[in-house]
Design brief:
Order of helices and strands: HH
Helix content: over 70%
Structural class: mainly alpha
Mean pLDDT: 86
Number of helices: 2
Distance between the termini: 88 Å
Length: 72
């Protein structure tokens, strides 16, 4: 850009704007990736709960029956 006659002060402004905008884009990307990771973690947890529902319910029912029998 300097070779085509752009003044140094204009080049500095351009560089500053480019870097500022780039940092903003990088920050926004980081925020979106964190949200994606949080959502993926919640999805994984839900899959686990769905896949283990029957087993979990069997154990819970046994515990409740034991509590019920012990309280009689």
């Amino acid at each position: 850009m300097r070779a085509v006659g752009m003044k140094i002060d204009v080049l500095r402004k351009f560089h500053y704007l480019f870097e500022s905008e780039n940092d903003g884009k990088k920050e926004q990307l980081k925020i979106m990736e964190e949200k994606r990771d949080d959502l993926q973690s919640a999805i994984n947890h839900l899959h686990f709960k769905i896949n283990n529902f029957d087993t979990h319910m069997e154990d819970t029912e046994k515990e409740l029956k034991n509590l019920e029998n012990n309280s009689k």
